[in-house]
Amino acid sequence: MITLKNIEKVYQTKTIETVALHNVNLHIPKGEFVSVMGPSGCGKSTLLNIMGLLDEPTNGIVEIDGKPISRYRDKELAHIRNQKIGFVFQSYHLINDLSVLDNVELPLLYRSGTSASETRHLALTALEKVGLSARTKHYPTQLSGGQRQRVAIARALIGQPELILADEPTGNLDSVMGEEIMNILLTLNRQDGTTIVMVTHDENMAQKTERLIRFFDGQQVSDAKTTAYDFQQV
Amino acid sequence: MIRHLFKLIWNRKRSNFLLITEIFFCFLVLFAVLSLIVYNVRNYNKPLGFEHENVWLLTMRPDTDSTALNRQTLEQIIQRAKGFQEIEHVALTNSNAPFAFSQMNNDLSYGQKKIMADEYLVQDDFDKVMRMQVSHGRWFGEQDNASHHYPIVINKVLQQQLFEGEDPIGKLLPRNDSSSYQVVGVVDHYRPSSEYTAEEPGFFNRIHLPGNKNDFYGELLIRVKPGTGVEFEEKMVKEFSGIGKGWTMEVATLEKMRQNKAKMAKVPMIALAIICGFLILNVALGLFGVLWYNISRRNGEIGLRRALGASANQVYRQFIGEVLVLATFGLVLGVAFAVQFPMLQVFEVESAVYFIALGIAVGLIYLLAIGCAFYPSRQAAAIHPAMALHEE
After folding, report:
1. Do A106 and B301 touch (CB under 8 A)?
2. Chain A within 8 Å of B391 (Cβ-Cβ)?
3. What is the pLDDT of residues A118-150, one digit of tens each?
4. Are residues B294 and B333 in the same domain?
5. For position B294, what pLDDT does the model report?
6. Is there a single domain that holds both residue B99 and residue B152?
7. Residues B111 and B239 in one domain
8. Cα–Cα nearest to B357, from B44, B39, B23, B45
């Protein structure tokens, strides 16, 4: 699905040079649920941005479905993001002036060939999947944190992406809400075969995934299968 | 996408209220100024109905009250004027000569219709002096001397208003006394007031010196040969002063008088355009500032949209689109107000003037909106999505 080869990311200002990622090599196969852990500032989010084609590596190659994307133009990268990738953020990133339904419909706004009625149908289906069918006309400010994150997941789902990139999706939630969100992600991965890469600080959540990669100071320090994944009941 | 933009702006109507109000008022002012400009320009492009180049207006003021003596002197002056080689034609008129600051009107009635029309007293050679063409019927002539009625030549506006589809030639129109006017001719146009004013209903009444011995006419229109200048003017006035001893005489070219009249129309137009320009500049700066602020406030949203699959170009188009939608909200209100003017025939101006002004004002507001949104939208499109999401 996605491969990173010798990825290096350096942030440079006039006075300082910060290495965010150094010599990262990763292959995420289709259908895998991977968690990424590490202390703050170790490069997890940078890694996710590079995987999500929101940022370019300073050096190295990113391949999506075996094709290097380094020569792709902005329009082509946007197309891949829209077609193949869904994003879930720690702070939800919902537009407060749009209703739940309109927020969920957003990705299809940038996809040609989907009619308004089809978009509506897909949005309602996505909201049903995350258990928010009753909140379609609400606005984000009228929802709890967990509900907002479920809206964000529905938004990530609507385009039926092959890959979901989740940046600390349970980071702003209490443990019960966090569990709920985690269960939704696990269901998506197991039932729909969606590939998920999740950045988390929570060891328990990470252990529920199939594979755990640890980062420290911009470097990948471990990459191993978890033990609990196969035995979990969703 | 358009539906999405309308929804977004509608949901943000409270925060956009001031901007929409500003666009609404800007549109109204622009509409008012443009209506005035369109009205003037349309009039300017219409024919005057006469040629004013090489025509002078000699204004004479006698120093005695003896009409008989004054009339005798006046006729001598006219005879002398006709004798000059530099002069092609002369004709007496009353004080409302072309481009003069004077007006005279009279009620004309036909059947049930009664129209207030401008009245111009002119001598038979007026058509030659002003090079006017009669489109129907004839101009005044010797054959009118024996007429029992007062011959008049009307303009087309008066013909349409008073006679509608009827042929006006030969029709009798009652005067205040027991006599009548009789229409002998029609001219297509006659707009002596100014190039910028609309044509009003008007008619020419004949000055026949032997016929009205008690009247004195102090305005003499003189068509001189092309190239005749100040030297001749001095010579002519000197000779006329010799005939009319003690008379005050003043010569003005119709071209100079036209310019003075034009100034009166242009000055308020320019003043209003300047005020309107400042207002538009103010609105533009406001719009630009608000957009700039909005974009910096919406970094997270921009990052999100990029993450969801919007290209930089789509972000750019979205912000331009938002401003256009915002302008549309202001314009819908403005247009709803502005269309009342042609519908209610306010100021009795042609509806086309209002509709043209409305169209231009709408176009200019959209251009202004695009102009103001251009740079902030480009900035929005250039925002790095990862950075924008991180900042949020």
Report:
1. no
2. no
3. 999 999 998 988 888 888 899 999 998 888 988
4. yes
5. 81
6. yes
7. yes
8. B39
Q: Are the CB atoms for B212 and B202 separated by under 8 Å? A: no
B54 belongs to a structural domain: no
Residue A234: predicted pLDDT: 46
Distance from B334 to chain A by nearest Cα, in Å? 26
Out of B12, B300, B385, the one facing A54 most closely (by C-beta) is: B385
Alpha helices in B45-163 (DSSP H): 67-83, 126-129, 156-158
Could you tell me if B259 lies within 8 Å of chain A, comparing CB atoms? no
Q: Is A119 on the interface with B (CB under 8 A)?
A: no
Q: Which of B213, B246, B279 lies at the terminal end of a domain, its last residue?
A: B246
A78 — contact with chain B (CB < 8 Å)? yes
Continuous segment of H or E residues that includes residue B375 = helix B351-382
ipTM of the complex: 0.87
Lowest-pLDDT choice from A212-221, B120-129, B354-363: A212-221
Question: Cα distance from B356 to chain A (closest Cα, Å)?
Answer: 37
Helix locations, chain A, DSSP H: 44-51, 74-84, 100-109, 116-129, 145-158, 175-192, 203-207
Look up the domain containing B85 and give its range.
Answer: 63-246
In three-state secondary structure terms, B291 is: helix
Cα angle value A63/A64/A70 (rounded, 5°): 50
Q: Is residue B58 part of a domain?
A: no
Same domain? For B165 and B234 the reply is yes
Note the pLDDT tens digit of each residue in B4-16.
888 888 888 888 8
> Token pair of A125, please?
């289906």
Contact residues on chain A for B305, CB-CB shorter than 8 A: 106, 110
Residue whose pair of structure tokens reads 């999947």 in the numeric block: A129
Give Cβ neighbours of residue A88 (< 8 Å, ≥ 6 apart). Answer: A149, A152, A153, A156, A164, A165, A166, A167, A169
CA B133 to mean position of chain CA atoms: 23
The domain total for chain B is 2
Chain B residues in contact with A97 by the CB 8 A cut-off are: 8, 11-12
User: What are the chain A neighbours of B311 within 8 Å (beta carbons)?
Assistant: 74-75, 77-79, 110
Was domain A2-226 assigned CATH 3.40.50.300? yes
Q: Is B71 on the interface with A (CB under 8 A)?
A: no
- pLDDT digit string, tens, across residues B139-170: 999 999 988 899 999 999 999 999 988 999 99
